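Task card 7
Instruction: Convert sequence to C-alpha cells.
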Amino acid sequence: MSQAQNTVVNNPAFRIDKIDVVNGETIVVIRKEIIGALANQLKNTDDRRKGFTILRKLGYVLADCGDVQYGADVSGTNIDPKIVGR
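Output:
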C-alpha cells in the first residue's frame, strides 16, 4: 500500500461519535475537508429519492458548517452561534 493510500485509510471522512437511543439522536463528526463535497452532493439530491427534502436540508446545513469551518462569520448562516467553538 502506498503512503497516500495509507493516509486515506487512517483519516476516515466521518465517524459516529454517539448514538443516543433514549433521545433518538446520533452525532456524526464529518472531516472539514469533505464537508463541501458532501453538502453539494446532498443538496443536489433529486426528488425521486425517498426523503429527498431531508437530504437537501442536511446538505444546506453542512454547507453552512463548512463555511464556518473555513472562517465565515456564523451570523451569515442559520447556525446557532452558541454551538460554535472557537
